[in-house]
Amino acid sequence: MIQLLRRTTVTFILGLSSFHASAATETNPTAVVDRAELALFGKTLHAEVDMAITTPSWSRTVSLAVRMDRPGKSFLRVLAPAKDAGISSLRIETEMWNYIPAIERTIKIPPSLMLQPWLGSDFTNDDLVKESSLVNDYTHKMLETPNPQGSGQYVVEALPKPNAAVVWGKVIYSVRADFVPLKLQFFDERGQLVRSLIYSDVRRLDGRDVPTRWEMTPSDKPGKFTVITVKGAQYDRPIDTGVFSLRNLTKKD
């Protein structure tokens, strides 16, 4: 009986310790951002996506292959339509290149152009290759947490670190209680909302719940928005190092 009580007590203490450790992690704002980003991209990512660009006067859709080895390497290639096929982007740490097959030219992207639109979309070069990091380039403050029953959401305010090479004056990240991202809001240095990224249509992909619709909408351009639809994804699988090379950037499939 004494041994049983001892085992029960030990089990209770270990369980209580585990609960407190988990709770401490879940209420740490930086940990929430990290877990949300990990839910989206994993440690490595193989994905096929469609990007639909809509404006008041025209619209177009491109299909992309995406490869990421976080945090330092990203590769994208346009698969369709035929006139854009082969356009590719590569990032290795802080350097980025775009390849334009129509002119057979590789262009190195300077830091000053990382916030330029990618292929006319509302996503920037930086967005597509994740050059800046919401985890490492910002300090975080918790604005809202889920209730004890697990409903509600985390809301985290991210402010840029003094020497971080980022343009946003503030980012607000809304995350579901199970760490599935819901919304990102980007503000300028004056506190004005510049654009919003809404995550929706959560589906089961490769064993995890992932928002498969990502809609980026600028605040000052009515009727303009870009939607990324994730068609398929694999997470945490090895990626050949040759993928992240200048040679692969110009490779013809």
Low-confidence stretches: 1-25
N-to-C SSE string, H for helix and E for strand: HHEEEEEEHEEEEEEEH
Q: What is the arithmetic mean of pLDDT?
A: 88
What is the CATH class? Mainly Beta
Q: Span from first to last CA?
A: 70 Å
Class by alpha and beta content: alpha+beta
Oligomer: single chain
CATH architecture: Clam
Biggest β-sheet: strands ordered side by side in the sheet: 6-5-4-3-2-1-13-12-11-10-9-8-7
Remind me, CATH topology? outer membrane lipoprotein receptor (LolB), chain A
Number of DSSP-assigned strands = 13
Biggest beta sheet summary = 13 strands, antiparallel
Count of separate DSSP helical elements: 4
Q: What best-fitting shape do the alpha-carbon axes yield?
A: globular
- The amount of beta strand, in percent, is 35-45%
Name the helicity range. 10-25%
Number of self-contained structural domains: 1
- Backbone CA Rg: 21 Å
CATH superfamily: Lipoprotein localisation LolA/LolB/LppX
Care to describe what's here?
This protein is α+β, with helices and mostly antiparallel strands. The chain contains four helices and 13 strands. It has a single domain, classed as Lipoprotein localisation LolA/LolB/LppX (outer membrane lipoprotein receptor (LolB), chain A, Clam). The protein has helices at 2-26, 29-41, 125-129, 246-249, and strands at 44-54, 59-69, 73-80, 88-92, 95-100, 105-109, 138-144, 153-160, 170-176, 181-187, 193-205, 208-218, 225-235. A 13-stranded antiparallel sheet has the order 6-5-4-3-2-1-13-12-11-10-9-8-7, covered by helices on one side. Mean pLDDT is 88; it is low at 1-25.
